[in-house]
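Researcher: Next entry in the queue.
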Amino acid sequence: MKAAIIYSQFYDSYGNTIKIGGIETYLNNLAKLLAEMQYSVTIFQSSHLEFVKKMDNITIIGVPIANLSRNRKRHALYRRASCWLDGENGLLIFGADHFSVPTNNPKAISIQHGVSWDLPAKYYTRKSGAIAQIVSIFRKYLDRLNAAKYFDNCLNRVCVDYNYLNWRRTTCLSEPKGRIWVIPNFMSQCLNKEIILERNKINKPEIEILFARRFTKSRGTELMIHAIKEISSRYNNVNFTFAGEGEEEERLRSELRDYKVTFTKYASSQSMEFHSHYDIAVIPSLGSEGTSLSVIEAMGAGCAVVATSIGGITNIVINDYNGLLVAPEPKALAHSLEQLINDRNLRLRLGQNAYAVAEHSFSLEKWKDQWANVIREVSNKEQRT
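Model: Structure for this entry, 385 residues:
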């Protein structure tokens, strides 16, 4: 059996470096699952040069279409993948629904990775002024229209959260045809519970707070700057760590050079061990979140989570049970952090509940079981509408 996955770029345009990100990690694990199910798996991506890469039992083919428009790229990859599959005899997976094309293929699946057009309009442009604001509003409106269109391209869809479906039901007049499954994102493993229990026995004077995200404004760097300055003005026993990289790094280092802030990074395979050294994990996104891997990993390490009430995060965190949900505002974030700094019992309770939820609901094995059921159903049954 064959399975083709279509995505914009898994490697860079020349096939030299593998991309690192949430969707890439997702598709890598999906490809591994398909290989375990005895599928011959090939990922088709846009590139500048034709290349073929092997990664374990997975093939990645670069199709030299990088100079085409996005719409023409989608269709070119679809044709290439369909040719390799010999029409509709294999499984076709659109790695993200915005890279899908209209198809009635009964063995095609499209993945919807969450609402990405909920950012404030000002983040759609780097320019200022009335004209830029109008353009931003128009672009945001266009994203909403396209989101509904992409979802309808394919009759089998997997969503990573319920947020998209709720938006769809609210804004669209018609029910989508075909079949829809909701399979939340996952973490590779939980931290060993004994490590968490031993950590919780130690009532150390210093509080360690972690921001492990890409350093961009949409991921809440502005909120973190304000919160750190406010917290640091009142507490001397709080340390902050930024783990990652991104376009805001230089600004963060400059703004926070006089505060107790450390900058570092870690490999994705080291996530649980890295998180084990922190009491509180902050996920202050302003928009564009599915069932956030950052939230799930922090929960799996038993951290007390503070997250903004954005997108699919609200499918993961129940406020005051396994984390704190806050509005995406500086004062709200600082207030919740202060709560956790002052209340050790609250930190421990939220962390313990977070660990239990992550272990039960967001394990890799559960994700694989749910996806395997979808793959078997789509592969073996006739399409229903």
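Model: The first helix runs from residue 22 to 36.
Researcher: Noted, moving on.
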